[in-house]
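Repro:
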Amino acid sequence: MRIGLITDTHIPMAAKELPPEVTEVFQEVDLILHAGDIYNISVLDDLQRIAPVLAALGDDDSIGLLKDERVENKHVLNLEGYTIWLVHERPFPYRSTPEQRAQLPDIIVHGHSHAAEVRRYDGVLVVGSGSPTFLHYRHGPGTVAILEIGLEGAEASIVKL
């Protein structure tokens, strides 16, 4: 399964609309996960034209976005045998106790930092796709990510726009 990851779009504050490169990168995905700071629900509608979309509510998002069935504070997904958390603010698995680590998912998809990261902590794949419009809190082209999951494992890669 191929999943497009995007976060911190901040539309229309950071840009008027999603960069067209997002559509190109996500052409072959089965699902898109938006990790929050959406601002405008039209962003999810635009992404939905590419593939089904789920989103986490960001700390800067209006609580009204929770009225949209695609948006939750936290999604817990089971896909291809992997448990995935879609959240806005990254939990810190490396600071957890052994009991807490036993409850962590296989994959955490997060936003909030505006920095792209792909790391493993005690077997947990942690992916932050950066921002396509506001990477490192600077306006301009940024990043998204692709998550590939299947029998051979789970891998993520950052894509510069």
